[in-house]
Amino acid sequence: MTDTTYEPYSQDPGYIEANTSLIGSIDLEGVERVADLACGTGLLSGLLIDRKPTLTIAGIDLDPVQIGIATRTFPGPTVDSLEALEAEAKAGRGAAFFSAGSAMDLPFEDGSIDLVVIGNAIHLMPDRDLFLRNVARVLRPGGQLVFNSVFYVGTYVPGTEPLFTEWMRQAVMVLTEINEERKARGEKPHPRVRGKGDRAFRKDWLSGEGWGEAMKAAGIEVAYMADRPVPISAEGLALVGAYGGLAEVLMSGYPVEVASECLMRAAPIAFENLGIEEVPRNWLEMRGVRV
């Protein structure tokens, strides 16, 4: 059965490389309290605690399954409440607390956070301006917002578009094959429920400059912005496709397990048909400072 959680994708070498580079670029001097928003399986939190074991990190994600994985795999101590996390901070001991919740509703006092990180998820925020204002509220003056994203204007390296087109074409063909097999067994084809979608794949992606303008409007000045090309292989693309949160967007309306299976099986076929082993895709990296 296809693992549709974020865990396999978070272990992909390309994904780890992109996020390791992001976390490695952060100046952690004076940073003690961290908020890891849309934290998923806690990869960024783990990379941060490895760099500075005295950090206290509050991780928030909508999906309780990912929170469970983050709590289980975090390479440092964990606590069971924000109050306990604050006690660890005051004692100078590093720890993390992971909880299910929305990054749009931050449970932190004004000016109480030194660093906010959000890995490859800022494009999912339903109201980006409100989100950035909330981040600015909880950051202390001089506190940092650091994020990356592959869903922005500039992510596709020129010349790589045919792979992603072929991937989707092959995924539809896999779905057709699955439905034909169901018919042969006397079962109904998987129905599609229309009307579903997700912000990550709407055409209102921002460029890096656009994110900079939105940050500035919220009171966060851009300190760093870059495009980081990271190669993705057939195996990496299959892991991306298997993640249910993405599959339900790319093949909107189909059962998530079916969509994940189609995208996972289609990835190596697309690479083979085009005769390539990997393609680059740009990651936007940004760092801002609360004024």
TrEMBL record:
Keywords on record: Methyltransferase, Transferase
MF-aspect GO terms: demethylrebeccamycin--D-glucose O-methyltransferase activity; S-adenosylmethionine-dependent methyltransferase activity
Enzyme Commission no: 2.1.1.164
tRNA-binding among keywords: no
Superkingdom assignment: Bacteria
GO biological process: methylation
InterPro entries xref list: Methyltransf_11, SAM-dependent_MTases_sf
Classification via CDD domains: AdoMet_MTases
Domain Methyltransferase type span(s) in chain numbering: 36-147
Name of the featured protein: Demethylrebeccamycin-D-glucose O-methyltransferase
Species in which this protein is naturally found: Flavimaricola marinus
Gene: rebM
